Amino acid sequence: MADPRTSSSSSSDFSAVPPPNGTQDGRQLLSPEVSRHWRDVFWLALFVFHLVLLGFVLGVFGFNRFKKKDRLNIDKYTMGFLENQSGLTEDYWKMYAVAAGMGTLLGWIWLSLLASRANSLMKVSMHILTTYLAVISVLCFWSKQFLWGGAFAIGAALQFLYIVSVIDRLPFTMLVLQKAVKMVWTIPEAVGVSCGFMIVMLMWLALWSFGVAGVVALSLGDSGRWWLLVLLSISLFWTGAVLCNIVHVIVSGMVFLVLIHGGRDAESMPSKPLISSLRHSLTKSFGSICYGSLFTAAIRTLRWEIRGIRSRIGNNECLLCLVDFLFHLVETLVRFFNKYAYVQIAVYGKNFNHSARDAWELFQSTGVEALVAYDCSGAVLLMGTILGGLIVGTCTGIWTRIHHPERMIMVGSTAMLMGMILVGLATVVIESAVTSIYICYAEDPLLIHRWDAEFFNQMSETLHQRLQHRSSRAREVVHRYDSQTQQTMSA
Question: For residues 180 and 377, what is the distance between their CA atoms, to the nearest angstrom?
Answer without folding.
Answer: 10
